[in-house]
Amino acid sequence: MISQSLKSLGDLLRGQPTARKLVVVPNGVGTSLARALARGGVDWSNALFVTPRDLAVEIAEADLVASGYLPLHRDRLQLWLRDNLPRLIASPGSFFAGVRFGHPLVASVARNIDALRQAGIGPMELSRTSLRADKKGPLVDLLDAFESYLLTGGLYDDAALFIRAAELAPEYPKCASLIVFGDVTLSMMSAKLLNSIRADVHVVFSDSGDTPPAGTALAVLEGWSRVDCPIAAPKAIAAQTALAPEHEVDAVLSDILATGKSFDDVELAYGSSRYRPVIASALRGTFPASFLEGTPIFQTRPGQALLAYLRWLASNQDSAELAMLMQSRSVSFRGIGGIDRVYPNTLGAFLVRRLVGPGKEGIEDALGRWEKEIAYDQFASDSQLETIGGLRTVADALYRSVPDGSVTSARELAARSSDFLQTFVIVRGEDDARQVSLLIEQLDRLGEADSNGTLVELAQFFYELIRGRSIDRSASVPGAIHVVPIDRSGFSGRRHLYIVGLDEQSFPPGAIDDPVLLDEERRKISESLQTSTARSRQITAAFGRAVRRAPETLSVVSSRMDPIFGREMDWSTTLDSFLRERKVDVVDRALGSTTEVLSDSGAVLSERDSLDYDRHAATHFPWMAAGAKAQVLRSQTVLSEYSGYLGIPTPELDVRGPNWVLSASALERLARCPYQHFVQRILRVRPPDEVERRPGRWLSNLQFGNLLHELLCDFMTEVAARGQRPDLTAGTVLMQAMLDDKLAKWQSFVAPAGEAAFARERALLEQALTVFLGSESRRDSQPVAFEAQFGFDAHTTAPLRLADDILLRLRGSIDRVDRAAEGYEIWDYKSGSSQPFSAGLLDQVLHLQWALYAYVWADLLQPADGLPVSRSGYFFTSGRGLGERISAPPPSRSDVADRLRPLVRMTALGAFPHLQAKNEVACNICDYRNICASERREPKDLPEQALFNDEDEALAAVRNWAERIS
Fold first, then answer.
1. Cis preceding-peptide flag for 508 (omega within 30 of 0)
2. Of 61, 182, 268, 736, which one's alpha carbon is 20 to 30 angstroms from that of 789?
3. Helix 103-118 with 188-196: angle, nearest 10 deg
């Protein structure tokens, strides 16, 4: 059975079975439509299913090639724009002055060039419009330069293709019927081509019954015959909610299996493009499926390997990125001869454990150090030397796939990327082999561009350009679920239609203006330019057409929860109106759940409202009972093994032990929250590797502080090397130049977050530099050391003794040491607020770094000049700190030892409670807050046994520590 829509199309085709007919359809659906008609018994002999561009290619491509022209691929266009946009449109006074032309903006400019040219807007036409002058002038220059680029390069774009096809259309064989689906989107040029095709009948075929959205064939093709098919509705309509997008897809698959539907009869449509990777993830390798828009490259094994390779090159060959590539399970060393027992994980572990520097030189240095260690190790084995040899062979092969030098070309980068794919990527079966071939084809097209640049910048552009692409596009395939966007559903003739992604947030997609030409500006230029509002209306109308094309059943699913913000959501207004009109009851559970077979865990969970649920769970899943017990004990104030109290002495965990080397900040974290130290340093729980993002900001707090530290260190080092003092005027010039270099460097390895975020970050850094220079120019002390490191090598590992029973081994870096009249001054830069330090340093038991750094300088780093450390403290360099300095003379070592004695005894006695000072906010900035923040305790919350039990040494130490921080 096929839909009424396809039946009506079949009636049009049957009228002249032997005559030539053209059917113009939306992109990608022609083959599926032909197969659907054949399955439904419709004879479409002598009919050709094409898109407007397919038709233009058939008519004009041979003529253009014969005239010496070649097609301009979008990759080549974007690389040309990358190289030329700053020169063409970013001159002073231009709207685009100062803009960073990353891939998203380049892609937007490319789309606008195509849209303008297909609307018949050239440089002259654009210059006559009322567009604002600072934008019009640059765009006119750009269009003019683009036309010259096409002419000199012997290239043609889609606009030129349509123009030539329209010129040749009178010579194209006449058709009995030219039938155009009403929802086909047409530009002025494609509409001109269709109007030029000779045919006995020009038909716009409609199955919408609604007002045609702007830009569609129904609205554009005036004077054509309109054939409206009878409006039908599915025999059965079902609606349900799900928790999140993943659950929507799971519900669809469960219903298909539970109701026994044939995969041949199922079409799965999505209302938002963000659902495509979710669907691909759920179906690939589990259910046979065809994807009209293909699979995102980042969800294929070869695509993941290629993207990781490009990201590594874009990081300036950082070893951490290479380690991630090696541990991605998408690469193999089988293509390299002469190695044994060396695998990608071997190289990945080596890079991480040996702290390997960037580039091949970093690998060679690390291998050389390892060889020297083995030479002095009497227990070294031959296998270690074999591993080193194998790693060296792998490094040689790997770096053969890296372009030489810091500057390269698109051709060279594309060729080396192809070599990497063919040498290193794991190929398991025909799918992987086909995907590798398709990726190499894309790289070959990129290599056609005459583009040059630094390896880092070009690799980053390649990465951004390829990341959003898809491969393995497919028409509907027998025996497979067909997955389509909602605006191209209903062409495969499937009996059962499922639609996901119909919540208020996803559908219809928001009308977001293009950043280059806003909707209002497009209307001023030409009514033929499609706006984001019109596109949103087209998608909304597509839902109605999808419903009418579903011949038997329609099942819609929508999320009830926003997975990012955790708020409840409603149906989209379009879907809500549809369901209300048809009085469809919404089911708040998975379709088919009454008939599907439950798993063991599902069977137990189905009894969760029963009085015997605890017994059921404990019988079937003992670990659930153990987890419930742990949860209860962790929520209580009783000290137990579930709240960081091990119950036995633990000398191996004593931070005074010979195997413990701590930074001052790590010791402060132990003081602020012993339980965090326990989770991080003892249990070795690793938080997710994700960068903290702040709204409207480019850098995380940590990244901002690191960049500022780097800049201040480099600046002061340069000033000292010149024998100068910081001067507000000259220093501003030097700092501004250094800031530009630093920002360029950081942009190469920190993902951009938009121009506004970058500009805000720059302004905050400039503010911090002004504050810093203003403070420094008023001081007369002499800087003597910057980033003074200690504890990292054999010369500075002497322990720091605070008392006879407290000896600590520290590691770290002192930001700044000055020499003043009274002695040395120790300063640590802070990029945050000074508020936590405002109560003073001497009375704050949790502030340790300032005092410890003073002792380290005196014991390990100070020149033998006899000068004391007169003061130590913090310099708040950012705009928030306003250049404030908080410092004090260092306290006596015995005072600090008395503060820390209960704390270090706790580590030796196995006690690491989640105990924090009353006003301490350690959980707010802790990576582990999601798992234990609710269990935070203050001294007043301790149970009586911890306060009054002197028999247990550990509890007595906890009590004494609680007294210190009360």
1. yes
2. 736
3. 40
